[in-house]
Amino acid sequence: MPCPLPRIAPLCSALLLGLAALFGATPALAQAERCPKLVADSPFLKHLAPRALPAAYVGPREVGLTYIGHSTFLIQTAGGVTAATDYNDYVRPSVVPRVATMNRAHSTHYSLNPDPGIEHVLKGWREDRDPLHYDLDIDDLWVGNLQTNIRDWQGQSILNGNSIFVFRAADLCIAHLGHLHHTLTQEDIGALGRLDVVLAPVDGSYTLDIDGMIEVLKALEAPVIIPMHYFNEGTLSNFLTRFAGQNYAIERRESPELVLSRQTLPRTPTVIVLPPGG
Fold this sequence. Notes:
Blueprint: H1 9-23, E1 63-69, E2 72-77, E3 82-84, E4 99-102, E5 120-123, E6 135-138, E7 141-151, E8 157-169, E9 172-176, H2 186-192, E10 197-201, H3 210-220, E11 224-228, H4 233-243, E12 249-252, E13 257-260, E14 270-273
Parallel strand pairs: 3-4, 4-5, 9-10, 10-11, 11-14, 12-14
Antiparallel strand pairs: 1-2, 1-13, 2-3, 6-7, 7-8, 8-9
InterPro entries: RibonucZ/Hydroxyglut_hydro (IPR036866)
Organism: Ancylobacter rudongensis
Protein name: L-ascorbate metabolism protein UlaG, beta-lactamase superfamily
């Protein structure tokens, strides 16, 4: 249910939140109107592949995406806003991002000493485990989150310990699943809305098992899936082999950098493997 007109967006947003409360849907994402569920494919769009270009080159209506490593990506908008996912002290982009998102599972997903030049440090959890919701506009980038639970080393559940962060720029919705430990409910799927790109942990052990991750990715129906959080080629190949029968094309790229746009989303849902090292 999109809010197409800026003048009525506040009214539409209030209506959506009211409906969410009425039907018990997760109200964590105010972006229900920002990343609405719709068909990304269109017969009027010429099929093009996402381009492998330096992320510094981002034209109008495009978003740059660079795989830094582990669970860290650098997102860059046409307006020059940069965001780093699961920002930590071990794997960092070479530039200081304006936005850094974090998750609490392990120290490779957060930093206790983020660079002081970062304008917005967004932790995906609260120490008291209460819900935490972001609805942040930074120039031409919007950031929101949907919280999920995680396990501790003893297998006990930590309520609201992980956030799925959603980034919207150039009418593209990019979701970073973080350290996801369980499948998503229909309310979660509805709250996330339309997603165009999903950054998915595929280790199959520390996060969600492969069967569970496949279930989540099929439910999200994103045209582009980019694997992350794999520890070696064997781990990655196991996921790709299991996913090959799910009507997804699989592409391996030589560059860790992509430039994406709505016009170049693949017609066939595609897993794009990027090498780390941006």
